[in-house]
Queue: 2 jobs
Job 1
Amino acid sequence: MLGSTPVKVSVSTYGSGKGAVLLKVHDNEQTAEEAARRILEEIGGQFIKIENESNRYVSFMLGGRERTFDPNRMYTPEGIRSSLQIFNSYSASAAREVLDFGRFVLRLLPDTGMMIAVHNNTDQAYSVLDYSPDAKLSKEAAGVHLNPAKDPDDFVFTTDSAVFSRYRQAGYNVVLQRNRTTTDDGSLSIYYGRASRWYTNIETQFGHFEEQAAMLRVLLHKP
Ligand SMILES: [Zn+2]
């Protein structure tokens, strides 16, 4: 429950349930879900998603008012505050509700093993180019590999240098997060990066199903 609003998080099990855990927090990102489910049919594992009627942002009722936040900005107090403020939804009690919901989602994720978040973006709105030298997010990156032959909207974002190397060698666009000094936006990559934990996000433009599935296979299929 968020305030007086039930918000459902579903867990789908494929095969024995062992293998990868794939997470989707933005319920509008349908290509990511289709690619994740395709891979899980191939290798087994779990698919975890926030059920939100295909909406990106989550809204709930608290104190007679509707509150809205971004479910990839709910893992740190600072990120929660700024996300609620963007939607004119901030109060201390609203922030507590969101923090509790974020912790609920974190408890569903494995302590060890492979957890990959899947996202989609719109053409030229957010891409690997934002992390290239002198671009707006360059300070957030400890490493960037750009393949000009690939769409810059299709890229991998990780806290882990071995994952970074693997995608670079496979010829994909990939960003290694600068874990210790990166800006606290409350996202899952920040939460895991600060805890020195493994985190990988596989992101493509909406509709790039085959590319997103191929990017998931780089990590998840045994050679
Ligand atoms: Zn997303």
Job 2
Amino acid sequence: VTERRILHVDMDAFYASVEQRDHPALRGKPVIVGADPRGGRGRGVVSACSYEARKFGVRSALPISQAYRLCPHGVYLPTRLERYAEVSARIHAIFHRVTDLVEAISIDEAFLDVTASQRLLGPAEQIARRLKAHIRAEEGLVASIGVATNKFVAKVASDLGKPDGFVVVPPGEEPAFLAPLPIGRLWGVGRKTEARLRDLGIARIGDLARFERRELEAIFGKNGGGLWELARGLDDRPVVPESDPKSIGAETTFGQDTDDPEVLRRTVLKLADRVARRLRDEGFRGGTVTLKFRYEDFTTLTRAQTLEAPTDVATTIYRTALQLLEQIPRAGRKVRLLGVSASKLAGARDHPAEQLGLFSKRDERRRNVERIVDQIRAKFGARAITLGSLVSRPAAKGRPRGGQDAEE
Ligand SMILES: [Mg+2]
């Protein structure tokens, strides 16, 4: 049996690095991504930060206000997910030059199974080196890579070398590689398990590897067997190539909590427009529309509606989401976040709704209008035309205040 060769590729400080690459003046500076578009004191959380910012104690998921206190001279930027997704797609295209077995685990992280690629492209280590060089040369970005016989060890390896990491664990050397590392590195070891292991005098993975499987099962039940395997560097999970998305969604966190019905309506329209555009771009139609609603106290509700026929028309998604919004009890409470998504996706090409007679005449007309809008945008930029100008509505007042947008 040939040993599997798995790569874990993880981009270093991805969002911040893309910003530094796009804006050379930011290189070498503490860059914090996730800020309110209007300035550094917004209410978001840090979605990424450069290594220069980490020196000040800034980390991902820290509230921006706290980051600002730690690093007041940092450069605070709003998240530009569309831009990062674009760069991510190009990096994925580079991955696919060496194997079709690519499993994306986030926008900046993936597993690659290159076992079969070695026959044509040489040893896994060489493939990984070339990959790293191509990403640097073509995208100006740094990837940390771990090479091992399985996902778990490859992931630990890529992480260990960061930043600019390149760590190869040769077959058979997994237990020795893992032995000196703290047990917190094991998958599935949360704070509780870690505390219990420490009580037993187990601090490093090597300490754990000395136990018999049944001893660990006696202490940790079913999880004991998993711990025993990981401690020896055993992990037979396959790399599962990406499949079609399960849902396509967009959401907005308001710059200021609001109960203004006109702001809510316009936001639902904006989100529906983004979702529909992505559906059309990616060749899908959604059969179910879901509205996500977060109150100012963070309580979150979702309401879903299945459509008569799958759609990629913004107006249809908008009208459905608006009906869902009306079902949500508001009683004077303000809204912090709104999200719209489409799920039960069907490929537009596989199931042409028109041919099945499922697309209503009205949907078809709206769809044609939106196609024209797509073309205008492609030619003159996204801001050239808004769907709002095409959808009937009550008199408008004010625009939604600047908030934070995120895409699923
Ligand atoms: Mg990363």
